[in-house]
Amino acid sequence: MPDGTIIQDYYVNEYADWVNAIVLTKDDDIILVEQYRHPGNDYYLEIPAGKIEEGETYAEGIVREVREETGYISAEQPILLGEFMVNPATQTNKVITFLIKDAYHVCDQELDETEIIDVKRYPFESVEKMIQEKEMTQLFSVSAYYLAKSYLEMKKDVQQEV
C-alpha cells in the first residue's frame, strides 16, 4: 500500500497491453470475430483484438491484428477511442481501443495455429440489440461499441452544424 502496509496473499497479474478495434465497412457493417474461449466454456462474439508485437505502435498492432484475424484493411488510419486499465486492482495491463472505418476485405485470415476464428459481418445499428439479447457479452467489445457509437454521433452532429 502507499503507506507501506503489506497485504498478505495479494497477487498482481502482469500482462502485456492489448489493442482492439471496432471495424466498420463502407456500408456501415461491423466486422466481428467469433471464437471459443476456454475459461468461459463457450463461443464469444467479439471485436478483433490482440497484443502488439515488438517494435509496433498500438495503431500498427491493431491494423495487423485486424488483417490477420479478418482479412480486412482500410486506407484510413485507425482512430484512437481510448486507453483503459483492464483491472487496476489486480492487473498491470491496459487495452487500447480504436475505430477503423471504411474497411474492406483483401485477403484470407493469417491465424496462429491455436486460433479458430469465424469472421462475421452485421449492420452496425444491430449491435445494441445484440448486446441487449446477450449475443455479445464480452465486456471490452461492448464498451468499444459504445465508444465508437458516441464518437460517430458526435462527428455527425459536428458535420450537421457546419
Describe the structure.
The chain is α+β, with helices and mostly antiparallel strands and 162 residues long. The protein has a single domain (18-161), classed as Nucleoside Triphosphate Pyrophosphohydrolase (Alpha-Beta Complex). The protein is 26% helix and 32% strand. It contains three helices and eight strands; from the N terminus they run ββββαββββαα. Strands 1, 2, 3, 4, 5, 6, 7 and 8 form an eight-stranded mixed beta sheet that branches. A hairpin with a 4-residue loop joins β2 and β3 (42-46). It is globular and about 55 Å long.
Compact description:
By secondary structure, the protein is an alpha+beta fold. Helices cover about 25% and strands about 30% of the residues.
Summarize the topology:
Blueprint: E1 18-25, E2 29-37, E3 42-46, E4 49-51, H1 58-70, E5 72-73, E6 79-85, E7 94-105, E8 118-123, H2 127-132, H3 139-161
Parallel strand pairs: 1-7
Antiparallel strand pairs: 1-2, 1-4, 2-3, 2-8, 5-7, 6-7
Cofactor: Mg(2+)
InterPro entries: NUDIX_hydrolase-like_dom_sf, NUDIX_hydrolase_CS, NUDIX_hydrolase_dom
Pfam families: NUDIX
Keywords:
single chain, 162 residues, alpha+beta, Nucleoside Triphosphate Pyrophosphohydrolase, 8-stranded mixed sheet, 3 helices, 8 strands
How many helix segments?
3
Q: How many strands appear in the DSSP assignment?
A: 8
Computed CA radius of gyration, to the nearest angstrom:
17 Å
- CATH architectural type: Alpha-Beta Complex
Shape: globular
Largest sheet: 8 strands, mixed
Compressed to H and E, one letter per element, the order equals: EEEEHEEEEHH
